[in-house]
Predict the 3D structure of the following.
Amino acid sequence: MAKHPQLNLRHLEAIVTAGRLGSISSASEAIHLSQPALTQAIGRVEAQLGHLLFDRQPSGVTSTEAGRLLTARIERALAYVARGGQAVRRGARLPPLPHIERRITAGQLRALISVDQAGSFALASRRAGLSEPALHRACRDLEQLLSVPLLVRQGRTVQPTAAAVILLRFARLAQAEMEAGFDELEALRSEGAGRVTVGTMPLARAILLPQALARFARAYPMASVNVVEGPYVELLARLREGEMDLLIGAMRNPPPVKDIAQEPLFIDDPVIVGRAGHPLLAEPGFPFSRLLDFPWVIPATGAPVRYRWEEMFKDHGLEPPRLRIECGSVLVVRGLMLEDDWLTLMSRDQFLFERRAGLLKEIAGAGPSLRRQIGLTVRDDWRPTQLQTAFVDNFRTVCVEWTSGKAMDSEPFRYA
C-alpha cells in the first residue's frame, strides 16, 4: 500500500495487537491467526523493514522504539481504512461491516489507486507491473466486499464512482501514514532522514520559502523536500488526501472545508505595482480614479486577489475596469508590466528583486481592506514526523525574522 515495502494489512494488524497485548499467543487468539502464522508474519515485516519491532522474552514481547513508532502509524492507517470503508457503506445506506479493516486488503486498495491514477486497467497494469486480470479481480473483490460499485467505464476510460472517490481519499491518507512511519524508521538509521512535501502559493515562494528551504537544507542534509506549486483548490485537495504535508500561502476565511487547520503567521499588504517610468509615478497624490485610465492584469474570478481588487474599487464608489487580460502567473504578470503601462496587485515581497533592479515600482498602497493573512494550512488530524515538525518550526522562524526585520522602501501613499 506504500511506495516502500508493500505490507499486508493483516500483518500490520498483527503487529499492533501483539504490541498492545504484549504476547504473541494472546494476539493470535485476538485476531484468529495461528501462533506460528503470526510469528512468521511479524518476522516477515521485520525483514522487509530491516528493523526489529519487538524484544522477545519468555514472558512475552515488548515493542522496540521502531515498533512503537510504526505501531502508532499502523493504528492511524487502519483507522483510515475503516473510516473509508464504513463511509462507503453508509453512503449506500448499508449496515456497517464489523472489523472492515481486516476484510479489505492492501492489494485491493493498491489496485483501486492504480486504476484511478491511470484511468484504465491497461495503463494501470503497465505502471504497476501487474496483470490486467489481477487488477480486475482485486477491484471486483473490493466492490463485492463493500456491495458498492467503485469503477465505471466512460468510453475508453475507467472513472471512479462517488463511493470510490470517498474510499480513495481515505486509502491515500492510510498510505501517507505508512510513508510517514517508514520515514521515521529511516530516521533511526540516519538522523534527520525523511521527506517533507510542501504546497506553496505565489507569495510564499517568492522570498520566504527559498530562505526556509536553504536554512533547512543546511540543518538537515539527509532530508528531502518536495515543493509543489499550483492553484489553491488543487493544492488543498492534495493536502486533504495526504499527498502533501502542509500548504503555505494566503489563508481562507472562513476555511473552505472542516478538516483543515490554519495557522496565521503574518499580515500581507498588497500594493499597486507598475513598471519603472509608469506615468502615475510622475503624479504624486493622484486621485484614485486615475487607476481606471490604465490596463490591469489580475487573476480570474474566484482567486482571493481578484475579489480584493474588485472591492478596492467599490470601496471608492467605482466599478472595477474591464480586464483585458486575466492571469495569476507572477512570471507572466511581471513580463507584461515591463512591456507597457499595466498595473497589478502584488505583495512587496513578490517583486523584491525587480524593485531592487529598478524594473518595477510600487505605484500606491492598495488600502487596509486588501490585507490578507499568510500562514500554514494542514490537515486537522495531521501527525507530523520529527522532521516535518522541524520544517514547520524553521518556517515559522523565517517568517518572524522576515516580518520583524524587513524595511519598507516607500512612505505610505495617500490618494488626493
